[in-house]
């Protein structure tokens, strides 16, 4: 089976600007990230703001080119100037359903636009495929939405239009960058169910970028936790949430709000995320970690398997393998 996406030690470094008489440090937005994802699977990528999630998404869709490493989409290697076939193979759903759709276009024109750009089909075929994509995105009947404009739709409906536009090219990989973070809680569940169904039925894979761990378990098969450009923990989504191995993951899980007024706020995040500047060498999380030891200041750990199919980049991960967050 051809993998939907494979990333091998991919990095994206941004050159610094000058500050008075000196140049700043290189920004390692994505640093030696590797993973492989077959069709029909969803990889969640979680982390706080600035961890590199959106840069990773931009690398996957070709909006950025890697400084080092390789990215392969459905067997085709990503190059500095991807060809049309490769661009059709990966599509993106953006965070903002209000800014990602052109207000001048009707819904039908919006969904047909990728087909026009790639010169696929005649007018009748493009119309048929656009209506099929709208139906798949649960905008039914499609004919009732074709001639509407974005301002006539709700936020949830606009995001479904964005999803229809992404799947009209029948991609092998869908990259969803915080696709529900700007939507009302009441409509989030419907969008998440839609994305999961499209992956299950469409023979494509999805990379789901999020900062909200409360939605990962119901959608994602695998979960990768990202910190300062690196994957620090990777494993089956429910295993990572139930038995986090890395102290950063444990803090993120403990910070998820519990819908019970009798439950007092957890103290773990404050203890583990005390703050501190990253070091030039050693574990990049050590300055914020209350579990750090002397070796953490000089050793930058790689991902290693601690539990079956569950890896973490932490010198003390084995000690906390059986602990609860």
Chart the SSEs and their pairings:
Elements: E1 5-14, E2 18-19, E3 22-23, E4 27-37, E5 42-46, H1 53-61, E6 68-73, E7 76-77, H2 84-89, E8 90-93, H3 107-117, H4 123-136, H5 155-167, E9 173-177, H6 185-202, E10 205-210, H7 216-219, E11 222-227, E12 230-236, H8 237-242, H9 247-254, H10 268-272, E13 304-307, E14 310-312
Parallel strand pairs: 5-10, 5-11, 8-9, 9-10
Antiparallel strand pairs: 1-4, 1-6, 2-3, 6-7, 11-12, 12-14, 13-14
Helix pairs in contact: 3-4, 3-5, 4-5, 5-6
Q: In short, what is this structure?
A:
This protein is of the alpha/beta class and 325 residues long.
Structure description:
- The chain has helices at 53-61, 84-89, 107-117, 123-136, 155-167, 185-202, 216-219, 237-242, 247-254, 268-272, and strands at residues 5-14, 18-19, 22-23, 27-37, 42-46, 68-73, 76-77, 90-93, 173-177, 205-210, 222-227, 230-236, 304-307, 310-312.
- It starts with a strand and ends in a 13-residue tail after the last strand.
- A hairpin with a 2-residue loop joins strand 6 and strand 7 (76-77).
- The longest helix is centred in the middle third of the chain and has 18 residues, at 185-202.
- By secondary structure, it is α/β, with parallel strands linked by helices.
- The model has no long low-confidence stretch (mean pLDDT 88).
- Helix 3 (107-117) packs parallel to helix 5, helix 4 (123-136) crosses helix 5 and helix 5 packs parallel to helix 6.
- The strands form 3 sheets. An 8-stranded mixed beta sheet has the order 8-9-10-5-11-12-14-13, with helices on both faces.
- The protein is globular.
């Amino acid at each position: 089976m051809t993998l939907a996406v494979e990333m091998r030690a991919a990095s994206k470094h941004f050159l610094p600007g000058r500050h008075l008489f000196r140049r700043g440090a290189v920004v390692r937005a994505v640093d030696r990230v590797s993973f492989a994802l077959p069709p029909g699977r969803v990889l969640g990528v979680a982390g706080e703001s600035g961890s590199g999630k959106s840069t990773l998404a931009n690398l996957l869709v070709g909006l950025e080119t890697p400084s080092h490493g390789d990215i392969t989409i459905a067997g085709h290697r990503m190059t500095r100037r991807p060809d049309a076939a490769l661009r059709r193979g990966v599509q993106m759903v953006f965070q903002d359903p209000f800014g990602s759709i052109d207000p001048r276009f009707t819904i039908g024109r919006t969904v047909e636009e990728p087909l026009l750009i790639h010169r696929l089909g005649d007018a009748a075929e493009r119309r048929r495929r656009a209506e099929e994509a709208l139906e798949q995105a649960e905008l039914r009947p499609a004919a009732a939405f074709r001639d509407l404009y974005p301002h006539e739709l709700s936020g949830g409906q606009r995001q479904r239009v964005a999803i229809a536009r992404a799947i009209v090219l029948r991609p092998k990989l869908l990259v969803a960058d915080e696709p529900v973070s700007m939507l009302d809680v009441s409509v989030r569940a419907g969008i998440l169910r839609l994305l999961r169904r499209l992956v299950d039925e469409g023979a494509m894979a999805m990379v789901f970028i999020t900062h909200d761990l409360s939605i990962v378990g119901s959608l994602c098969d695998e979960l990768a936790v990202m910190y300062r450009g690196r994957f620090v923990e990777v494993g089956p989504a429910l295993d990572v949430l139930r038995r986090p191995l890395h102290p950063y993951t444990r803090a993120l899980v403990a910070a998820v709000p519990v819908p019970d007024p009798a439950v007092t706020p957890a103290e773990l995040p404050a203890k583990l995320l005390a703050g501190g500047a990253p070091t030039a060498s050693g574990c990049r999380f050590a300055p914020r970690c209350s579990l750090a030891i002397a070796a953490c200041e000089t050793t930058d750990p790689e991902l290693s398997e601690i539990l079956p199919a569950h890896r973490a980049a932490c010198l003390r991960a084995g000690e906390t393998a059986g602990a609860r967050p």
